[in-house]
Design goal:
alpha/beta, 7 helices, Pyruvate-ferredoxin Oxidoreductase, domain 3, 193 residues, seven-stranded mixed beta sheet
Length: 193
Amino acid sequence: MDKTKKKTDIDDRFEIRLSGSGGQGMIFAGMVLAEAVGITDGKNVVQTQSYGPEARGGASRSDVVVSSKEIYYPKPVKLDVLLCLTQEACDTYHQALKEDGILVVDSDSVTQLPAYEVHAFPFGQLARDRIGTPMVANIIALGTIASLTKIVSRKGLSEALQARAPKGTQEKNLKALEIGFELARKKKTRNPH
């Protein structure tokens, strides 16, 4: 019985890392996710970020830790979910993923896959083809992660996105979010080994 209580306490903490390169909107996506989880869904959440010295092109990541209890340590210890929009991000961060964690990648950019079960989707291509801009690939990925994990409500994510998206981009961002949810429903899993 004691072990069950400890396991539940540990399982209550859910850690997500959104990673790619500068300019891909990882920080924005992390802030939208954290706001949706914290304000709309009422869970405890901490969002931290890191990016390279270059505004565009350097490594970029946003970490979100979610719990129904107090969060005493704000940074991820072992990731439940890792999103990689670049090969460099995947190479750098995949070791931080739990053994049974969820690895989500952009299938066009991440071609050398670690030995994990991988959810691969063409986020960038879908953003260009269906929305007309690669700038919403991050939001398509966010919708996919939300649908795969159920860590945040669809309603909460939509509301946070509408509140945070720059004026005039709300419609494109909401369409991108819907594409992400649709992708997860048609889930394709790739296991390289």
